[in-house]
Amino acid sequence: MTEEKVERFNLFERLGHWSHGITFVVLLLTGLALVFRGYAGLLGPGGLRLFRGIHHAMAYPFTFLTVIILLLGTPRTFLQWLRECFTWGRDDFRFIFAFPREFFGLKAELPEQGKFNAGEKLNSLLTIFGSILMAATGWILLLRDSFSPAVVSWALPLHSAGALLMGGVLLGHVYLALGHPNSRESINGMLSGKVSAKFAREHHGRWYRELKAGERQEKQAKIA
């Protein structure tokens, strides 16, 4: 019997996610070579110039591409995602306090969640504000002749601290998407757009009920 699937992310949501993820990873790897001398030494002068060129070129898609994809391709779900990220209720805080047990494989009582659970909301907020910090400080460093020495001197440590923070967020995100036994089904949502109905019911129960209620209303409207 074929397992029922439900669509969690449309094509543009997935393109936006991957454009951000891929450009950030390239920026992180090339940026490390510009900061750590040992890494730069392995590359040599030619490799370092290549990495610097890639790092600077990736600033454009990192800053603009994801926003353009989401705004033009799927504005309704983009705004829904932003609204959910900035809307926190009692169940979200209960989830955050209980989730560390789930993260480390212990039994946890997690409250019912919407399309994005509280951990995903927190990850999204860190990504949004971290990306703004990285883009702003990165452009200041790239166009340093247009700014005062004081602004440039603040931009460099903030850019490095932002990279460390977002790198840590990325590691946790990758572990939950690929390694954690209770949540790795979620990667299917970002590959094919669909997850199993069982996963949707168990991890995003409120969203699953709303989704099915909408489908029933749509069928009834067609019959009428």
UniProtKB/TrEMBL annotation:
GO terms for biological process: anaerobic respiration; formate oxidation; respiratory electron transport chain. Residues 8-193 form the Cytochrome b561 bacterial/Ni-hydrogenase domain. InterPro entries: Cyt_b561_bac/Ni-Hgenase (IPR011577), Di-haem_cyt_TM (IPR016174), FDH_cytochrome_b556_subunit (IPR051817). The keyword Cell membrane applies. Signal peptide: none annotated. GO terms for cellular component: formate dehydrogenase complex; plasma membrane. It holds the Pfam family Ni_hydr_CYTB. The gene is fdoI_2. This is Formate dehydrogenase, cytochrome b556(Fdo) subunit. It comes from Neomoorella humiferrea. Coiled coil: none annotated. The keyword Cell membrane applies. Keywords: Cell membrane, Membrane, Transmembrane, Transmembrane helix. It is found in: Cell membrane. Gene3D superfamilies: Transmembrane di-heme cytochromes, Chain C. The chain crosses the membrane at residues 21-42, 54-73, 122-142, 154-178.
